[in-house]
Amino acid sequence: HFAQPTEDAIVVAENLAQRFGLPKWRFGNSGTEATMDAVHLMRAITGRPKNVKVEGSYHGHHDSVQVSVYQDLEDLGPASRPHSVRASSGIPSEIVDLTLVVPFNDVEVLERVFEQEGDRIAGMIVEPIMMNIGIIPPEPGYLERLRAVTRRHGALLAFDEVKTGLTVGPGGATKLFGVIPDIVCLAKAMGGGLSGAAIGGTQDVMGHVERAEYDQVGTFNGNPLLMAAARAALTEVLTDDAYATFAQLREEMTSGCEEIIGRHELAAHVVSLGAKGCVTFSPTRIRNYRDFLQIDDRFSHCHWLFQLGGGVFLPPWGKAEQWMLSVQHTSEDVHRFLANFARFAAALRS
Question: How is domain 7-237 classified at the architecture level of CATH?
């Protein structure tokens, strides 16, 4: 279709604009493409070479974000000024040096980085809720301060909502916390089962695309099949009734897990938002990647095996992943999950 707009693409864009509070949208084919465009846009608009990302965050597999993802503690450097560490082979050191790293939930380090290099920083890309290391919510005021710091230094702020968008709520973390960035990246849930992505932005940001000052292009971008699926997902599936169902099932999952944790005195707690949740095997809340590294992953892998043996297939990456509810799930599915979790907890104490 030569990347031409379709009626469905217009409906999807208008729907996303209403949900996320950003007026203009373009489409792509994966979360990696969406975050790549966000980084490129921030550099193109500001004329600056560097970007900031959070230590331990995964934003896809393009060069600029393959930095300090799942590195070992000894490679990270001091928490007060984390090192930029190559996270994959094939990434030139020159690219790594252009990516500055800060801990999640730590504005002091962010402010220090901007004070030192602000005139060379194009922007910051961040998951507003970290979701590639379990679920780590932002502390109160954290996102607002990110917004203030980036604006003060003339940099842009991009939210990577590939995992949170449409899952933690109808308008993702952007609507949930009421902080609107310059750019939002979406993928996964918006595709209705197909591979697809979207990038939304302010009028000023997306004006650079409209004026061809930045080329956001691709043969299959906004293709008719994806747009039809996205329209159905947004207008017929992910409705107010669907989010009410997620809230009910999430409460059943969360309260059930908490009761089992308490009964068996497990060193664990539950974090859940919207359609997503996880059991974190730590007695204390996790604030950032370095806290996450301290979690004993043996418990998560053992739990995964108990769930699989009991007919529940969770993402097979241990402590890094979450459960995910869909509109097809019912209380019967929740009870199966909880029964498996109870067997797991009892086995730990036997």
Answer: 3-Layer(aba) Sandwich (3.40)
